Predict the 3D structure of the following.
Amino acid sequence: MEVSRRESGSPMCRPSKDLHISELYLAKRGLSAIPDLSKFKQLRYVWLNNNKIKNLNGSVFNCCIAELYLQNNEITTISGALRHLTCLRVLLLHNNQLKNLEETVAELRHTHCLQTVNFFLNPFTQDPEYREYVIHHLPSVQILDRKEVRQEERRHAFRLFCSERLRVLDTLAFGRRAVTPPVGRKITQDMVKLRGYLQRSCGFHASTGQSCLGQHRTMFPLNCPSEYKSVLQFSIMDWCSMRTTQQSPLEEEGPTALNILTVKFR
C-alpha cells in the first residue's frame, strides 16, 4: 500500500491520512467481499486480484479510480458497481464467473476513458461474437484480452451490429453506391412506405401513373425506389477575375462577367 500525503505545516490543519491514499494493494488476502473504500477520496489504483470475491457491492469505489484489478476471483456480476467510474482506464476481470455479456458491457458504457480490458476465462467469452460485441459497444477500448483492437475489427463489428445504419450510409452522397435490388426481388414494407411518400410528395396519381405538378408530368418506377439518389451541387466563383474599384474605371458601362464553375454530384 502506497500512501501519498500532502500535509500542511500546522498540526491543527492536518487532514486525515485516508484522504491522501492513492494506491491500495489487497491482493491474495483471502477476501470474500470488498470492504468499503469510499472513504479513500484520492484512491486511483486498487489491487483486489487473487481473492475469493463473488459480488461487488454498489459504489464501494470512488469515481476517481483509474486502474482496477479484479482478476482471479469468483465474481458473477458487476451490475450496479462500476458504472460511476468515469475515470477508469484499466479494468482486469479475467478468470471470473461472468455469464451475462450484455449486462457486463452495459455496466461499462459510461466509462468513456476505458482503454484496457480483460474478460478472457469468463463463461460469456464462449459467445462466437463476443469480441465484436465488446469492440462495438465499448469504442474507447484499445486493448481487449491482451490483444490490440485493430481498425479492421472495428469495421467488421460495425457491419455486424449496425447493418441498418450502414445501409443508410450507403445511400448518402459521397458514400458507397447503394446496391440496386435485383430484378424480381420481393418488395419489402420499407419500399411500400417509400413509394407512398413519393406519391404524396409529388402529387402522384395511382390510376394514371403521372405527376400533377403543373404542366410537368413524370413517371415514377414504383418497383425501384432505391434508384433515387441524393444530389449535391455547388458553385465556385473566381473572385480574382473580378475587378476592384481601383481597377475598374467609373465610366465603364457594366461589370465584367465572373467565371463560375458549377459541379454536381449524384
